[in-house]
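Need residues for this backbone.
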């Protein structure tokens, strides 16, 4: 057990295939994973995801780290809080840029944990790259699922309040893909691999179809916006024109925005999990080699989300007028049309705001915390 006189311990592990820890006093010239632990159970309100079993790949890797610290005794005592801090996103930055979480300052990532650097142990197994990769997937999954839930809630609420006649029900393929990605993340933490039983390939195929549909809808909506009169366009014309794209009708437009955003984010999450699983099959590879594998594709998905946000922003500032019919209109009809236009613009504004990240990717580290239980099981924690 950790001694009361030594409440915090930690190591710094290189994120490549070299064995052992970084030598004492050596300057860190390579990307490294800071792993600290302290005997301090976390608040129950911070729990994220399912419990990770004591025999899981994550527990095994953390156990190796603790064992390499002489005098620490038990591999994973209950009531320990581990903090794993990465110096960068290793290609996941485009997806992280869509989230609401800003990287932690370096001092927060280390927190109260002191980081003595042990002498190298040539025979010790290399754990930095594998443990760092699991930490990276957790950092991204926590941030991405949190912002995805927030965006979808905001969009659904806006539609319910401003366009209640428009449904936002999920495509069954999207719902299935969401469940599959949760299973894939769990499999990585448990086994270090994603088995065929998870059916990630089916989810990938469905998300690929949905992404192509989304890109086609985006292009059509952009053509509509490009053709609008910037001095003012009848609101009914705008609604009808947007509804003609994909033959969804105006009632289908908000739901299509809802589904497009979710499909793009899910596909980005799928790309990262797939690359991580492939990377774990060859643990001798440095974590830095992840960047060229995932960054271009993640950047493409993030660019599509940015296109969707810009489209809604442009619509939100487009002046909407009332179409006048021959012979004029009754005042009450004019008022009703004006009210409908104001609700339409408010809907565009709120959907654009929903897709706007609350924070950005800045300097600092990406960290995640894990709590050990008396049973040896692990619990992932939400960031502070």
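Answer:
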């Amino acid at each position: 057990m950790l001694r009361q006189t030594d409440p915090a311990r930690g190591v710094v592990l290189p994120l490549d295939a070299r064995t052992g820890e970084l030598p004492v006093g050596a300057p860190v010239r390579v990307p490294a994973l800071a792993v600290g632990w302290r005997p301090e159970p976390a608040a129950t309100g911070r729990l994220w995801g399912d419990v990770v079993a004591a025999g899981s790949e994550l527990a095994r890797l953390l156990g190796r780290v603790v064992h390499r610290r002489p005098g620490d005794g038990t591999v994973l005592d209950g009531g320990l809080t581990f903090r794993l801090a990465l110096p960068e996103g290793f290609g996941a930055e485009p997806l992280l840029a869509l989230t609401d979480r800003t990287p932690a300052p370096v001092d927060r990532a280390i927190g109260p944990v002191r980081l003595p650097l042990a002498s190298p142990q040539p025979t010790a197994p290399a754990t930095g790259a594998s443990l760092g990769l699991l930490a990276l997937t957790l950092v991204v999954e926590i941030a991405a699922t949190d912002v995805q839930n927030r965006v979808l809630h905001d969009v659904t609420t806006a539609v319910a309040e401003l366009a209640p006649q428009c449904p936002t029900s999920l495509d069954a393929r999207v719902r299935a893909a969401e469940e599959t990605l949760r299973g894939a993340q769990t499999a990585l933490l448990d086994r270090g691999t994603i088995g065929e039983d998870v059916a990630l390939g089916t989810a990938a195929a469905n998300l690929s179809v949905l992404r192509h549909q989304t890109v086609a809808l985006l292009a059509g909506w952009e053509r509509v916006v490009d053709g609008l009169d910037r001095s003012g366009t009848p609101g009914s014309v705008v609604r009808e024109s947007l509804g003609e794209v994909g033959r969804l009708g105006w009632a289908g437009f908000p739901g299509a925005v809802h589904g497009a955003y979710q499909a793009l984010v899910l596909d980005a999450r799928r790309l990262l999990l797939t690359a991580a699983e492939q990377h774990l099959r060859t643990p001798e590879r440095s974590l830095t080699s992840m960047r060229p594998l995932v960054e271009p594709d993640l950047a493409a998905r993030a660019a599509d989300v940015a296109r969707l946000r810009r489209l809604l922003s442009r619509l939100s500032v487009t002046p909407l007028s009332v179409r006048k019919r021959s012979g004029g209109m009754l005042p009450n009809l004019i008022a009703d049309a004006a009210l409908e236009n104001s609700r339409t613009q408010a809907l565009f504004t709120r959907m654009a705001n929903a897709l706007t990240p609350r924070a950005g990717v800045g300097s600092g580290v990406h960290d995640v915390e894990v709590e050990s239980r008396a049973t040896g099981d692990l619990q992932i924690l939400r960031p502070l």
